[in-house]
Structure formats: structure tokens, C-alpha cells
Amino acid sequence: MKIKRLFLMLLPLLPVAALAQYGDVTSKIELVGNPYKDIYPDFITEMIYARNIWDMQVFNGRIYLGAGNSANSGPAVNAGPLPIISYDPQSGIFREEFVVDDEQIDLFHILDGRLYTPGHDPTQSWNWGNFYRLEEQGWKKYRNVPGGIHNYSMALHDNKMFAALGIREGAAVSVSNDDGKSWVNHELPGMRIYSLFENQNRLFAAGFFVDWDEELLERIPEENRSEWLERYTTGVSEWRSEKFVPRPDLNSERMFPEIMGKERQSSGHFFGKIVKPLNFNGAAVYIGARLYNDHQFMPLGLFQAISLVPDDTDIRRLLPCEEGGKPWDIFERDGYLYVLTARRPNHCEFRVEVFRTADLKSWEPVLHFNSAAFARSFELFEGAFYFGMGSEIENPHAYRTCELHEDTGNILRFDPNRSNTSLVMGDFGHAVELGQHLLSLLEHPDSGMRQAASNILKGFLDCYTPEQPENRHEFLAFLEGVFQDRQGSTSWERQLALRILLMHSQYMGEEKTDTLLRLGIEDPSTKVRSLATLIMATGFETAPGRAMIQRVDGLSDRELQYSAFSDLVNRPSRAFPEKLTAEDFELVESQELPLEGWRFRKDPDAAFGYVKEWFDPGFDDDDWAEVEIGDFWATFLDEMYIGVGWYRLTFDMPEVQDFDAIGLHFGGVDENAWVWVNGEYAGQHNVGMHGWDQPFQLDVTRVVKPGRPNQITVRAKNTRANGGIWRPVEMRAFRKSSQPGN
Description:
Layout: H1 2-10, E1 23-24, E2 30-33, E3 55-59, E4 62-66, E5 82-88, E6 93-100, E7 109-111, E8 114-118, E9 128-135, E10 138-146, E11 150-157, E12 160-167, E13 170-176, E14 184-188, E15 195-199, E16 202-206, E17 209-211, H2 214-218, H3 222-233, E18 236-240, E19 243-246, H4 252-255, H5 260-267, E20 270-280, E21 283-292, E22 296-307, E23 314-318, E24 326-333, E25 336-346, E26 349-357, E27 364-371, E28 374-381, E29 384-390, E30 411-414, H6 431-440, H7 447-463, H8 472-484, H9 491-503, H10 510-520, H11 526-538, H12 543-549, H13 558-569, E31 575-576, E32 585-592, E33 598-602, H14 608-611, E34 625-627, H15 634-637, E35 643-652, E36 661-666, E37 669-670, E38 672-677, E39 680-685, E40 696-699, E41 709-718, E42 724-725, E43 729-736
Parallel strand pairs: 1-27
Antiparallel strand pairs: 2-30, 3-4, 4-5, 5-6, 7-8, 8-9, 9-10, 11-12, 12-13, 13-14, 15-16, 16-18, 17-20, 18-19, 20-21, 21-22, 22-23, 24-25, 25-26, 26-27, 28-29, 29-30, 31-40, 32-43, 33-34, 33-35, 35-41, 36-40, 36-43, 37-42, 38-39, 38-41
Helix pairs in contact: 7-8, 7-9, 8-9, 9-11, 10-11, 11-12, 11-13
């Protein structure tokens, strides 16, 4: 190919981006996104705390994230339910996969090749605890752990499943012999069991470590003192012969060597726990931490338990970094143990550091960067490091909002295999990257894209000559001409021109970029409209938006448009379970919404209505069709419509007395639905084609207005056969029949 040969000849003459190096990577850190920000926004400052990324876990090509807050004091009290969110590094998309009925997603475990998260603190009654498992059909909730107010950790050992619990009576470990279908509790000394870990093929349960001082002892009535000492001094128990045996020898002094003296000097007494234990080279490695803000933790040190055999214990402190660096997370990968630490060299920033070791003796610094917030968790995927940012408070009973940094919840990335500047957000002068991108499209399977890439590459080479390698403005003008020439250019050329223009929008300015997008959503081509609409809906400066721009296969598949809109735009549903059990709620009264008087409009471009804000209560829908719900689209469209349609209704809701929650109940939407009430997003029923006949109910307590007119907007999506709101819709008021979980 003549163009390809010419471009290869010019490559040595074009500027080349420097490769990123390890060491200080501050300038090379990328912001991937802040996926929990919509749920816990900045304008409710205390909710920022719930954006802390407590854990990250790579599984099946995605990175799973945990957030929320189950503490009963301090910011963002009892912040559930909340979604499990995963990040796909290949597409750059955050995906809300499931809503957990718990207040915090604290940990993920991979047990026997399956992904789990324990139910940290249920939003339902205290009778049962939860755990969640990712199965072939998706996430599944198991609400069957007896009395599991808190399920802190899970493990597999001797073909049994174990769950570390806090129950009404104190500490317990629940044991299942049938893959989590049923459980039996084993009560243990202490208040709660926080972690389970193995050492030399033996299972240990670690709970509440207490180091008593005189002041603390005096607070306990003398008649109860011996009972309390016996109950709360034992921090570790060992699984032997089908039962747990307390190990009083494994106390705080033994399990956290070298730090107890400092803790006594600073606070006089010590309440501690073991955090994120794992096996590495036959030893148990764990973070020793001080209990903080209910059951959150403040790390104190990293430790290695070589042997926990009675009378022959060998536990050592590990020092991967300088004193003052706190270990927040650890994981094992490819024979190395990686440790994430953070320290504060000054009041303005943190120094985040990663170290690794192959033998737990010598430590290798991997990278470091400076940040206004610290990294609470991290992961490594295909050579790139990902960091979940957090914030912490000094006093949960008298915290300061300035302690809750707005960067909390940011997902950062350092990829040593990427150039210092990415194609989308980078400097237009790096012509090699842009040229290679265009060159790769010459191998595209679609002939239309191949021809479009060939024509635009010609314009690129006309502008990027050895004499004028930085003449970007001429190329931008060329691209604008291609994009706006609806008669003389193909849809592939206009789509590709728009993508490249958005890649370098910083050179055009916000006003021109906005104008181009608005021209795009009015383009006669579905390909161009779809791209422009999706980018406007998500924001081209976001990670999902960048991923959409960087696509090389176009957007010709309408189903791709639908799924992309669902993944990128919609926030998670805060839904009631369909069957509200008597132990949780009782129905006070209900109001069936009218079948008549709804307004309807098709949205062939899937996201156009979102961009135009059809969910706004003040939106003028007079030119929409007036329809009756309770049947499928074909009854009023006279066609078997496949796609997206929007419904709007304004209705009067009566006053409701003595209620705790209001649910908006749909008998059936074919197949999926996204719902706004009074302009506020209320949730979604997005389960695929099988959701067409599944009733669902959304919690609209915070957004509905009893005794006043209310406006409802429903975006319905159908991918085959019938579609629409084909069963009645009701507003239901509920009263709690039991106190929710603590």
C-alpha cells in the first residue's frame, strides 16, 4: 500500500513521545474516573467518606471496587445499599453489576476460582447475614448466615466454607459443609471475628485484640472484670477437630511485635485487628491495625507469621518502607508480594509508595507519586497499577469537612507500557501515535472504514511533512471540512473525523467542541449520531467517553448503542426487593397510577433523550403522542418497534400518614426501564431480555412529593418482539416492622 510505505518512511522524522519510567510517576498518573461520585456527591460533604475504595480485586479481566460505610458514627453513617462496580480496562467502562443490601463493600475474596464479597452490615433485619457470589448468571445474594449482623471475611478450608461474624451474642465463625447453602455458628470469645487466615495448612480466626491498662480496667465493674478479661483478651482461635480452640498465647503483644510499646505510650491502651491477611511463601502476612471509627481501621504495621505452633511461634514485623509509612493494602502476584503504603511528608500532600519482595527480606521500591489524597487500595492488571483513593478523619464524633478530600473515590492508573501522553487527551504534536492509529484502521474489516481511514490519512500526511511536523491547525481545519461536508463525505469519514477532533478538543476550545457535538447529533448518519450522542451523554473528558472515542469498529450495531448507553450513563438502582417480607416492611397504602394520559416518544438513537433531558419536569412534551399504558407498543405504534421509547406522566399524589418508605412498583416493563421522579434519577430495572415480565420496585422516598403533583419519566428499552409498560404502575407506602441492621 502506497500510503503505508510513505508513512513508514516519515516515522523517523516525526516527534516521538518519551516512555514513562518507574520511580517518581507523579506526572504520569492518569485519572480513570470516580465511579461512586454520583451516589455519594460532593455537595453532601459527609457522603464523600463513603467513596473510600476499601478494596480492589482483579477477576476475569475486570477490577472490582468496594465502597460505602457501615460505621454508626462519623461521616456517611450506614451508607448502603450500594452497587458492586467493576472497571473494564480494555473498554474503559465502569459497570454497575449488582446492588448489595449492605452498608459497605469491604472485601473481595477469590475462593475456589469464584469471586465473593461478604455482607458487611445488612440494611435488613439482624436475623440473617449475607454473602454475595459471582456465578455464571451473574451476582447472587445469599441471605442465610444465622444472626450475621456483620460478615467480615470468608475462607475455604478442608472443603468447608467459613464466615467471620459479629452476632448479637458476640463473636462467631459460621461453617458450611454444602457450598454456602446452610450454616452452623461456632461462638467464640470476644466481640467480633474480623478475619480468617491460614498458616501451615491450619485455619485461624482473628477477632478483637485488647491490650488492657489500669484506666481501661477501672471502667469495668469489679464483679465483671474477670469475665471481661477472659472474653476479650483472646484475639485468635484455631480450627481443630471440627471446632475452634482459643489461643490466648496469640495476644496483641505476640501478633503485633514492636508496636505495642508505642501504642501504650500514645493511647494507654490498644484495640486492634488483623487486616487483609494472605499466604505468601508458606507464611501468613497481614496488616496489623488499630480499630478506628467503629470497625474501620488505621494501619500500624506489616507482619509475617512464620509459625503459629504453640510454644514455637515465630512472628516478625516487616519494614518495606521508612518509619511513618502506613501499609494500606497487600497482594501477591507472580511470585512477588506487593505492598501499598502512604506517608505524609507535609500537610498538603501524601507520598504514595509501592514496594515488592520475593523473599520477605529484601524490598524493592517499585514506584511513588504525590497526591492530595492517599491510596487506600491498589491492584495490578496487565502491567498497569490501579489505585483507589481515600480519606480518613481524626475524630468520627467531631470530624472536619476539610478532612474529606474531594479526590476520595478517584481511580488512578499508572501504566508503564503507555506513553507519557495518551492519544485522546495528549499533545497533538505526537504525530507517531496519531499516524499509527490511522494506519491500523487500514486493516479494518469494514471496507467503509478502510476507505475513510485512507482518505483521512492522506490529509494527515499532507499536513505533517518533515518541514512542518507541528502544523496541527491545518489538519484540524481539514477534519472540520470532512465532518461538515454531509454531501461529499461518507458516514465513516464523518465519524472518524469527529473522533479525531474530539481527541484534540483542547486545541479547538469548549465552544467549538460543543458545536461539533450538536452538529453530530443532527447528522443524517446513525453512526455519527450515535457517537456524538453517547459522547455528549457521558462527557468526552471521562474515561468511558475516551474509550468510546478510541473505538475502531464504529457504532453500526444498534444493540451496541443500547448497551453502551446503559453502561455509561445510568446510575445504580436503589431498589427494594420485589417481595417485602413482614420482618422488614408492611404495606400502609397504595395508589395505582392512571393508565391513560401518558406521553410517549421513540428514541431511535438510544441516548438522544438523555442528552435533551427528556426527564426534566419542565420539559415541553406537548408534541409527544398521548398513549395508554397496560399494553405493548404495537397497540398504539402500529408497528413492532425495536429500540428505546420514553414515557412521561404528571399525576396528583395524596398525602400519606405514618410511612417510612415509598416504593414505585412496576408490574412489567418490556424489557428494561430507567426511571426519573420529579427530575431525579430513581433507579433502573436493567436485567436484559428476560426482564420483560419481572415486576420491580424502586425506592423513591427521597424524591417523591406526597400531597402534591409529581412527574414520572420512564425510559424503556426493548431488543426483540414486544415492548413498553404493559402492566399497571403503583405508588406504595410502607412502614418498618422491625429495626434495620446495625
